[in-house]
Amino acid sequence: MASLNQRPSTDEFAVYDPADGSVVGMAQEMDANTLDLMVGNARRAFSGWREQLPVSRRDALRRWAEIMRGRKEEFAQLMTREQGKPIAESRGEIDYGLGFIEWFAEEGVRPTGEILAPHLSGSQGIVQQIPIGVAALITPWNFPFAMIARKASAALAAGCTAIVKPSPETPLTALAMEDAAHAAGLPEGVFSVATSETAALSEQLVAHRDIGVISFTGSTAVGQKILSSAAAGVKRVLLELGGHAPFIVLDDADIDRAVQDAVGAKFTTGGQDCLAVNRFFVPETLRDTFVERFVAATRKLQVGRGIDPQTAIGPMTTAAQAESCREQIRDAVDQGAQLAFTGTAPSGNCWLAPTILTGVTDEMRIAREETFGPVAAISTYSEIGDVIGHVNRSRYGLAAYVHGGDLDRATRVAQQLDYGMIAINTARMTGPPVPFGGMRQSGLGREGARHGLIAFTETRYLCICSN
């Protein structure tokens, strides 16, 4: 685990608390040679890990999860300090992430493969799913624990070894997970963490000859670069990229229920979530009622340090992301949007008060770009068909939300949306059994569910002749 309260040196970088800028701890600034040794170690470990019985890998993953569950409060406090999210959300994220480890531990022992009907005389065909090799897992700062847990548990259960490259904003949670993996007795090289403050190390990891599969969660722009780099080695690439989630309120929706879900789908993690709502579409006839109740509910959210148990919205993790949101707000207001609500927040570059905009139109940046912050954009409509056509033309296609009183009608609307995940009359939809992923420029492949395990395997066919 990274040492705390040290001064930066030439081979370390500082990790800062976004709430006040204080140093949370230090992480190693790894160079290309160190990374090469780490990948080589993972490659050697793969030979033994893939040959372990699935039940042995299951037991190892269970021990890892058990140790981290016992250190839950320590992990939560660390995550809140380096990421900024409310402590209750950090605790919830740990439970959520451990659910993936426990789920994939069991999924990895279930039989896979096929026995084919003979197509050649005296032969038998067998189809196997075998682990690809060393997996590079590049994770973001918004969910420092859960993203690693979801990716790594699937990779390890499939028989791969894994190298995690966490965001430089939140490497300490990853290093704590590595420490727990060692305590659980995972063989050396099975789960490793590579840290760096620059993008160069990620680029070297993606391009390394011994990396067989890459799983990345982050922006669409970076995902496109990874896809291009991986193409040279024809490597398997799994991408969970940006989103621009619409929240569609139908004219027969239960407004109080819709508002409750709107607050959760917009402001959890301070809106720093690829599933967070970017734009609300509300019938013209319900506009005033929805906005009034949404503002009233948002006004109750306390903004402050994540460590305060009363806090609902913490600081933005980076000052750059906070400024990006401010620019979107200014652009929208300059083009005619109205500020229906602006809350209060402490002073500082990483702080941004929850904001609600009405009268948002297609020309505004916030209507096209991912916001990734506590800014809600509301538009009105008269014809639901126009909304469906509009949201399906987005370059993103990760998540969408539909609220309606007639469940059959709401489901019909949802089925016309070209999005990977759609929540109907709820703000919650993800978990271990769910194939998490999107369409268009929101990514490639799926995480979670059986799909998430198979993603780390290759298909091999054996033709066995008996004579």
TrEMBL record:
According to the UniProt entry, its GO molecular function terms are: succinate-semialdehyde dehydrogenase (NAD+) activity
Biological process GO annotation list? Answer: gamma-aminobutyric acid catabolic process
Q: Which residue positions does the secretion signal occupy?
A: none
Q: Answer whether the UniProt record assigns the keyword Translocase to this protein.
A: no
**Does this entry carry the keyword Metal-binding?**
no
One of this protein's Pfam families, by short name? Aldedh
The cross-references to PROSITE patterns, in alphabetical order and at most eight, read:
ALDEHYDE_DEHYDR_CYS
Task: Kindly state which keywords UniProt assigns to this record, in alphabetical order.
Answer: Oxidoreductase
Q: Where is the Aldehyde dehydrogenase domain?
A: 10-460
Tell me the protein family, please. Belongs to the aldehyde dehydrogenase family.
* The protein's name: NAD-dependent succinate-semialdehyde dehydrogenase
User: Lineage of this protein's species?
Assistant: Bacteria, Pseudomonadati, Pseudomonadota, Alphaproteobacteria, Sphingomonadales
